[in-house]
Structures are given as structure tokens and as C-alpha cells.
Specification:
mainly beta, 8 strands
């Protein structure tokens, strides 16, 4: 999946987190991490853990927001992101990944 944002504007990424059967994942006490890098093999530019996002345990969702300053610090181009979740008692796995395109602000 590719998402497009304008450089210098705030942006939110919304994720519904489900298990391998499509049921809502139990996020109570889960470790949740989101990372952004220039590519899938480069170092991390931005990251968030559960304390830096809005997590709804009841809805099994996570909202990651990027501030104006954070997006202004990204050069126009294509970036890779990953959302990893480790529910209590389970190993961490990638629940979502894809590309985020930053456009120059008009």
C-alpha cells in the first residue's frame, strides 16, 4: 500500500490490527512499534512505540501521527514504513508495511 503526504503538513496513519484469522488482536499490554526509513534496508528516520500513538484496545486500532516539523524534515520522495506488534504471549510480527510518498508542499 502506498500513502501520500504533503511535506510540512501533519499526517495521521490509522491501522486496524487483526490476527491471522481476521479477528481483532488483543492489544492489552502489547508492544507496538512503527518505523519509517528511506528504504526497507536503510536506517530508521522516525519511530514510535505505543506511548507515542493512540491505541484503542477495544477497537484493536493504532493511530500514528506525524507532526508538521517531522514531515518538513523529510525530503520529497518515497519512504518505507513498518508496523510491528507483539501481543502478550506472542512473538512480534509485522502487521503492516508499505510505502509513504512525501510530496513537496505547494
Amino acid at each position: 500500500m502506498s500513502r501520500v503526504i504533503d511535506r510540512g503538513y501533519g499526517f495521521g496513519l490509522f491501522f486496524i490490527i487483526v490476527d491471522e484469522f481476521g479477528a481483532k488482536e488483543d492489544l492489552a499490554g502489547a508492544t507496538i512499534e512503527w518505523r519509517l526509513a528511506a528504504s526497507d534496508s536503510s536506517s530508521v528516520l522516525l519511530d514510535r512505540d505505543a506511548s507515542g500513538m493512540i491505541v484503542s484496545i477495544e477497537a484493536s486500532t493504532a493511530l500514528i501521527t506525524l507532526t508538521k516539523l517531522e514531515t518538513a524534515g523529510l525530503a520529497p520522495g518515497r519512504y518505507y514504513y513498518q508496523l510491528a506488534v507483539a501481543p502478550v504471549g506472542k512473538e512480534s510480527r509485522i502487521y503492516d508495511s508499505g510505502f509513504l510518498t512525501v510530496r513537496a508542499r505547494l
